[in-house]
UniProtKB/TrEMBL annotation:
Organism: Bacteroides xylanisolvens SD CC 1b
Keyword Protein biosynthesis tagged: no
Stored Pfam families: Fn3-like, Glyco_hydro_3, Glyco_hydro_3_C
Alphabetical list of PROSITE patterns matching this protein: GLYCOSYL_HYDROL_F3
Identification of the protein by name: Periplasmic beta-glucosidase
Family according to the record: Belongs to the glycosyl hydrolase 3 family.
GO MF term set: beta-glucosidase activity
One GO term of the biological process aspect: carbohydrate metabolic process
SMART domains (alphabetical): Fn3_like
Length: 535
């Protein structure tokens, strides 16, 4: 994270938002070491710093002082702009008069904000970004909607795609031909407001077709889309109310759970294939939406089990903004497509993926655990002094669990395709590298299936021995390639010493001589490995 922030500064970022958390007992909003010594002094940042929403007044609850005190501490630490707390506008005059804030500090903060406005051209035209004609001209145009549809489809992650009869050599369920009777069932199947996802505050929700609406439009004259809600989002009405705020209501149905289920099963039995639109509402994840249970909500999981009992092929279209625990679903549902919250064109993009107009090639940007007890669970973890040995499920006095293995359900970087890819062993241009040198790691990637498709080739590196403990692997690069069936491409990654640097105990950015492991693969778990030495 530190390296990412440093890179943003080197790229000339104009402003930085302060986090809410504390660092070594000092809230970040009042942390002079963080904002002045590191951000400006060590990294050379010269833009302006703004608090997060009410970041200054929230320090009162941290026990740092009253509004005048925390406001003075913030500006003295390096904050230039107060977002919403009104601590600057309400107390800085008094703090200057009392000598708690100098005029030089106040002028410096003002100068940084004025410089930003000048660079944005606001002195020449203060209404530069207030064109009333812009929304009609530039927003929600056909070109932008087409781009949104394409981007959404490319972001979907295919988690599973087996034959519906369980035959390991059978044809995968997806994609399927849009014909016959298609049942679309679930509390998220006919919701417009949840398609864009949380914090899409400027979205016009009625412009976002629901999954049912989108599929009906796409299959007109070819298939019969049949809809049933099947269940509410959650059995607990008060819980659902908390999970559907800010206009994202799912219009809770007052019928009993059994009545909703019976209606869904009646629709399901008359269908040729079932699309189960389940998971989270957009307000169940994101800011201020923590959960202690990461299963698909109770009534939805029961609905899914009953749909599978009909014997009809079932595709789980999973809406979520976070990792969920999907052990039962992975074991029993033949196909799972994670569609996140795909935006205004999500309904059409989902149809594109289900019907094979697009081959989904998205990869997970997070790790999906098997159990909440595994959390925190991430690919770039550090070893303990007693790591579990490779190939072992459990070993006494090692770092493991009694009831579940250490592996995630889906690792970071995971994602299937309608085709398959093979990787050659890694070819390193050199076995060692000097501090001012570089080397190349290359693999041959071949499309071994029958569909054209994209693959995200991922590069991970491990610093085997360091002066400080190091992660077991770190993502250092990736390349997205497109391959026709049978086509092979050589993917090359240039590895230079700056890619091997990290902040040591003294916060010095260093690359240390020693052995390194290179890993290249389709995700963080399934990789080819090679080694080199940094001299």
């Amino acid at each position: 994270m530190i390296i990412c922030m440093n890179a943003a500064g080197e790229a000339g970022v104009g402003s930085v938002l302060v986090s809410f958390n504390e660092v070594d007992g000092i809230p970040a909003t009042a942390n002079k070491w963080l904002m002045t010594d590191i951000l400006r002094g060590q990294w050379g940042f010269n833009g302006f710093v703004v608090t997060d929403y009410t970041g200054i007044s929230e320090m009162i609850d941290h026990g740092i002082g009253d509004l005048q005190t925390v406001s003075a501490r913030a500006i003295n630490a390096g904050v230039d702009m107060d977002m919403v707390s009104e601590g600057f506008v309400g107390t800085l005059k008094k703090s200057v008069q009392e000598g708690k804030v100098s005029m030089e500090t106040l002028n410096t903060a003002c100068r940084r904000i004025l410089e930003a406005k000048y660079k944005l051209g606001l002195f020449d035209n203060p209404y530069k970004y207030c064109d009333p004609k812009r929304p009609a001209r530039d927003i929600f145009t056909k070109a932008h909607r087409d781009a949104a549809r394409r981007i959404a489809a490319e972001s979907f992650v295919l988690l599973k795609n087996d034959s519906p009869d369980g035959n390991p050599n059978g044809n995968p369920l997806l994609p399927f031909n849009p014909k016959g009777n298609i049942a679309v069932i679930g509390p998220l199947a006919n919701s417009r407001s949840n398609m864009p996802g949380t914090w899409s505050v400027a979205a016009v929700l009625d412009r976002c077709p629901s999954l049912v609406e989108g599929l009906k439009e796409m299959t007109a004259g070819k298939a019969n889309i049949m809809y049933a809600k099947g269940s509410n989002l959650i059995s607990d009405a008060s819980y659902e109310e908390r999970a559907t705020m800010f206009g994202r209501s799912l219009n809770r149905d007052n019928r009993t759970d059994q009545q909703l289920l019976d209606e869904a099963l009646n629709v399901a039995r008359r269908s040729d294939i079932i699309i189960a639109a389940l998971g989270e509402s957009s307000e169940m994840s994101g800011e201020s939406s923590s959960r202690t249970d990461l299963n698909i909500p109770d009534v939805q999981q029961n609905l899914l089990k009953e749909l599978l009992k009909t014997g009809k092929p079932v595709v789980l279209v999973l809406f979520t903004g976070r990792p969920l625990t999907l052990n039962w679903e992975q074991e029993h549902v033949p196909a799972i497509l994670n569609v996140w919250f795909g935006g205004s064109e999500a309904a059409y993009a989902i149809g594109d993926a289900l019907f094979g107009y697009v081959n989904p090639g998205g990869k997970l940007t997070m790790t999906f655990p098997k159990n909440v007890g595994q959390i925190p669970l991430y690919y770039a973890h550090k070893n303990t002094g007693r790591p579990l040995k490779d190939g072992k499920w459990f070993e006494k006095f090692r770092s493991n669990y009694l009831d579940v293995d250490n592996d995630p359900l889906y690792p970071f970087g995971y994602g299937l395709s309608y085709t398959t890819f093979s990787y050659s062993d890694i070819d390193l241009s050199h076995s060692s590298m000097d501090m001012n040198g570089s080397l190349t790691a290359a693999v041959e990637v071949t499309n071994t299936g029958t569909w054209p498709g994209s693959e995200v080739v991922q590069l991970y590196i491990r610093d085997v021995v360091g002066s400080s403990t190091r992660p077991v692997k770190e993502l250092k690069g990736f390349q997205k390639i497109f391959l026709e069936p049978g086509e092979m491409k050589i993917v090359r990654f240039k590895i230079a010493p700056e890619m091997l640097r990290y902040y040591n105990y003294d916060l010095q950015l260093v690359a240390e001589p020693g052995d390194f492991e290179v890993m290249i693969g389709t995700n963080s778990r399934d990789v080819k490995t090679a080694k080199f030495t940094l001299n």
